[in-house]
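Minutes, project check-in
Item: structure for the 170-residue chain
Input as provided by the requester:
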Amino acid sequence: MRYFYTGNSMIDYMKTTLIVIGRTVEKHYITAIEDYVQRIKHFMPFEMEVIPELKNTRSLTVEQQKEKEGELLCKTFQPGDVIVLLDEHGKEFRSVEFAGWMKKKMTTCNRQLVFVAGGPYGFSQKVYQAAHEKIALSRMTFSHQMVRLIFVEQLYRAMSILHGNPYHHE
């Protein structure tokens, strides 16, 4: 494990993953997301896992699509993972509060911290039941492409705050 020093204590790094459904297609988002992912990796083990989007969804109802995506998502979860859904009904944070939340998770999570961005219709009941927490990036709605970028930027910002880097101004 890698450690980092924050004031009076050492915090060990748990692995952190962002799971998304469907690949990012817009080149400008891909470039920006990759940039922030590399920046995050300077602070902690981080990866973004892409679950292929469903094919032939025209014949599926919204509920059927959510169920199928939910099955794929749940297969990626490992015992001991702390599952956090990026969900419009989740808890909202200011960036400094999110940094504090991350610091707490880094001291209490024994395994992997898994953030999940769902498909276009949200999550199935099975995914909600597997989740430990929900976080809202905003009360506004963003495209799935943008959610990825906003999340990785905020995770990088949180790690910068914890390390005392000048990225965040307050």
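Outcome recorded: The radius of gyration is 16 Å.
No further action items on this chain.
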